[in-house]
Amino acid sequence: MDKKSLGSSTAAVTDDPATQSLSPKGRRTRAQLLTAAEKVFSDLGFHTARVQDIAKAAGVSHGTFYTYFESKEVIFRTLVESLAAEMVNTRSLVRGDPIAAVLDGVRLYVESYSRSRAMMIQFEHTAMIDDEIHELLRTQRDIAIARAERSLSRLQEAGHASESLDIFYTARALVAMTGRLCFEWFAFGEDLDQGAVVRVLTETWLRAAGMSPDAVTTEMDRLFAQA
């Protein structure tokens, strides 16, 4: 498994409230288990992975695992909760330009998916058979849709989107398209250029909002020249 796809979803959970009562050594051990679990789940899949596989990869005993996590289900949920939060994080989306904000949102999603590609695929697969993981995935989707609706509304208010735009359905279509493209990109191992994916997705969002092709090209050239 590509090392670039590992480690990102474990970073945030090291600051989880669950770690506050742990000693520095305990926090390090918990972080080791999370990093190991991400690799094991990515390599073997949720169903095949065992607690002993995670403990071995982390370099700790089988019993030590249970000091920090009740089961493989719990450590998996800890990882995907962090991943879901990262995918819909809007703290970095602060630009006032509504067109630039669309680009920022698309880039955030694509980059987050790319960094955690193996776990994202496991996340989506496991959501089909685990109710709690399914609810996490649904919550992530709902937040992404709400953000898309706000972005489309801002485009409309700024005069960049059609007044007749159906924001409700357009937001859902664009979120589904973006998520599915990323899933198939990594699940099928396509050799795509990340920058090109971000640009084409952003152009598609803007055209769906009602911007003319020429206006979209002009805005994309402007924004990418600033990058």
From TrEMBL:
<dbReference type="Pfam" id="PF00440">
    <property type="entry name" value="TetR_N"/>
</dbReference>
<dbReference type="InterPro" id="IPR050109">
    <property type="entry name" value="HTH-type_TetR-like_transc_reg"/>
</dbReference>
<dbReference type="InterPro" id="IPR036271">
    <property type="entry name" value="Tet_transcr_reg_TetR-rel_C_sf"/>
</dbReference>
<keyword id="KW-0805">Transcription regulation</keyword>
<dbReference type="InterPro" id="IPR001647">
    <property type="entry name" value="HTH_TetR"/>
</dbReference>
<keyword id="KW-0804">Transcription</keyword>
<dbReference type="InterPro" id="IPR009057">
    <property type="entry name" value="Homeodomain-like_sf"/>
</dbReference>
<feature type="region of interest" description="Disordered">
    <location>
        <begin position="1"/>
        <end position="27"/>
    </location>
</feature>
<feature type="compositionally biased region" description="Polar residues">
    <location>
        <begin position="1"/>
        <end position="23"/>
    </location>
</feature>
<dbReference type="GO" id="GO:0000976">
    <property type="term" value="F:transcription cis-regulatory region binding"/>
</dbReference>
<dbReference type="GO" id="GO:0003700">
    <property type="term" value="F:DNA-binding transcription factor activity"/>
</dbReference>
<feature type="DNA-binding region" description="H-T-H motif">
    <location>
        <begin position="50"/>
        <end position="69"/>
    </location>
</feature>
<dbReference type="GO" id="GO:0045892">
    <property type="term" value="P:negative regulation of DNA-templated transcription"/>
</dbReference>
<protein>
    <submittedName>
        <fullName>TetR/AcrR family transcriptional regulator</fullName>
    </submittedName>
</protein>
<feature type="domain" description="HTH tetR-type">
    <location>
        <begin position="27"/>
        <end position="87"/>
    </location>
</feature>
<keyword id="KW-0238">DNA-binding</keyword>
